[in-house]
Amino acid sequence: MSLSAADLAFVRGVPMFSGLDEDLVRALLDEAVVRVLPEGGLLFGRGDVAAHFFLCLEGRVHLFALTAGGEQSIIEVVDRGQTFAEAAIFANMRYPLNAEAMPGTRLLEIPGAPFIRRLSDMPGLVPRLLASLTGWQRRLMAEIGDLKGRSPAQRLGAFLLALLQNAGSAGGEVQLPFSKAALASRIGISPESLSRALSRLKSIGVESRGRDLHVADPEALRRFCGLD
Asked: What is the tens place of the pLDDT at every residue in 147-197?
């Protein structure tokens, strides 16, 4: 499936392609296709040859590693408007992680080789792409530092505050974008530690009902997490 006019307009608003005119974006993406994944599924596995990178048009993708016991450890959650797997393409490598699309996800699948060939004719675009990769690396490094320096309850609190901010909500209801088991993996704790963290946060006004949580006092939660 090729890009619709609406999808093309959306792509031009993504940081990697922002500021580029329509003809230039079309030239870069002329071999890209839209993949619709109503049931979700594995996109690629760790060690597979990196032939494509992706832009999430709708839905969500989990980038994960497997523990020694065969369990998923979520490293990154890719949401609408984010690209992923660029680094493996530009370095002519294999994918360093596994990628699984959630049900209902729509992706723009961009073949690496033709994209790089066209990019070689557009040297002014290279710094923009490098900035995108650098930003992703910085986010990962910041997250690693955060995980090392915070307790499980603080990690959970910081994650909930980020959800509130992304939803544009000053407080109230927030819904987890995935299961609590996936959340525990995402913030680097065990499911048992997550249950204890939720109990700890009750004292500062965080209530849990399944995947729905209520944050009564975001400022108190910020202070608890040391984010002031």
From this structure: 556 788 998 888 888 888 776 665 678 888 778 888 887 787 888 889 999
Structure tokens at 46: 């760790």
Q: Domain limits at 77?
A: 5-137
DSSP state for residue 189 in the 8-state scheme: -
Helix (H, G, I), strand (E, B) or coil at 92: coil
The SS3 of residue 181 is helix
User: Would 145 be classed as within a structural domain?
Assistant: no
Q: How many of the other CB atoms lie within 10 Å of CB of 145?
A: 10
Place of tokens 């006004």: 205
User: What confidence category does residue 126 fall into, taking pLDDT thresholds of 50, 70 and 90?
Assistant: confident
Please report, as a single letter, which amino acid is at residue 6: A
Query: Is this prediction's pTM over 0.85?
Result: no
What is the distance between the alpha carbons of residues 214 and 202, in angstroms, rounded to a whole number? Answer: 10
Amino acid at 114: P
The confidence score (pLDDT) of residue 120 equals 80
Dist. CA 158–CA 141, nearest whole Å: 16
136 and 128 Cβ atoms separated by less than 8 Å:
no
Q: Sheet with 212-215: list strands edge to edge.
A: 172-175, 212-215, 206-209
Do 45 and 91 belong to one domain?
yes
Q: What is the dihedral of CA 111, 141, 158, 223, to 10 degrees?
A: -150
CATH code of 166's domain: 1.10.10.10
Return the closest-CA partner of residue 193 out of 156, 221, 163.
156
Collapsing DSSP to helix, strand or coil, 172 comes out as strand
Q: How many Cβ atoms sit within 10 Å of the Cβ of residue 123? A: 8
